Amino acid sequence: MSQVPAARRTLAVLRLLASSAGPMPASAIARETAMPRSSAHHLLREMAEDGFVVYLPEERAWGLGVAAFEIGSAYLRQGPLERLARPPLRRLVDRVNEIAQLGVLHGAETLYLLKEQPPRHATLVTDVGVRMPASLTASGRSLLAHLPAAQVRALFPGPLVSRTGQGPSSLRELRRTLAEDARRGWSIEDGLITEGFTSIAACAFDHVGHPTAAVTVTFRRETRPEDAWPALAEAVRATAADLTRRLGGRPGTDPRT
């Protein structure tokens, strides 16, 4: 049992409102957080005093307040994901002597937030701040593999992008690839972004098991035979698991099962 029940209830309300499509009545908040109605009303009034929630009288509902927005903005300014990921990525580079990157989903694209590399290593097109089609990159597919099928379908309503004339050309082909990636526990991209380069990626998860970021290692294909890829993938998976722990997360499951 929590030693600070008021804090637990406050956080539960914030998480509920953050995950809701819109403001919620106090009765629904009380029900979803398993809180007595009187306690929910009292807590919401206290949170409103500090600006964390706001009451909308016309809708008779409660929504997130400006203070909650300010905290979210501060999170983005501080870049905690990158800060938490940098040490594991550096250890991964030391272990495999290849470029390691951190990527997240940004709509239907992979956005690269962080890159670590050995000295005097070849530069990649996928640098920090660069976006690439998530259906092509190993990092993007490792994240997509743990999203519900309906969400993947919404992200890719039309034909899929190709850079080198290879890769999945339809949503059906992409689904087959994602199913295999989810079963295997890691994703691979071989020459779909830059000819001659291969990438292996694994996913890190947040506190609810949602795919949050992908750890990727990229190397020249000619330097590593295919029978060496599984061992490299295990190093990437171990780093992603380490990042999951540092995020306070828990491993996700295949949403297709």
TrEMBL record:
<dbReference type="GO" id="GO:0003700">
    <property type="term" value="F:DNA-binding transcription factor activity"/>
</dbReference>
<keyword id="KW-0805">Transcription regulation</keyword>
<feature type="signal peptide">
    <location>
        <begin position="1"/>
        <end position="28"/>
    </location>
</feature>
<dbReference type="GO" id="GO:0003677">
    <property type="term" value="F:DNA binding"/>
</dbReference>
<dbReference type="GO" id="GO:0045892">
    <property type="term" value="P:negative regulation of DNA-templated transcription"/>
</dbReference>
<dbReference type="Pfam" id="PF09339">
    <property type="entry name" value="HTH_IclR"/>
</dbReference>
<keyword id="KW-0804">Transcription</keyword>
<feature type="domain" description="IclR-ED">
    <location>
        <begin position="67"/>
        <end position="249"/>
    </location>
</feature>
<dbReference type="InterPro" id="IPR036388">
    <property type="entry name" value="WH-like_DNA-bd_sf"/>
</dbReference>
<dbReference type="InterPro" id="IPR014757">
    <property type="entry name" value="Tscrpt_reg_IclR_C"/>
</dbReference>
<keyword id="KW-0238">DNA-binding</keyword>
<feature type="domain" description="HTH iclR-type">
    <location>
        <begin position="4"/>
        <end position="66"/>
    </location>
</feature>
<dbReference type="InterPro" id="IPR005471">
    <property type="entry name" value="Tscrpt_reg_IclR_N"/>
</dbReference>
<dbReference type="InterPro" id="IPR050707">
    <property type="entry name" value="HTH_MetabolicPath_Reg"/>
</dbReference>
<dbReference type="InterPro" id="IPR036390">
    <property type="entry name" value="WH_DNA-bd_sf"/>
</dbReference>
<dbReference type="InterPro" id="IPR029016">
    <property type="entry name" value="GAF-like_dom_sf"/>
</dbReference>
<protein>
    <submittedName>
        <fullName>IclR family transcriptional regulator</fullName>
    </submittedName>
</protein>
<dbReference type="Pfam" id="PF01614">
    <property type="entry name" value="IclR_C"/>
</dbReference>
<keyword id="KW-0732">Signal</keyword>
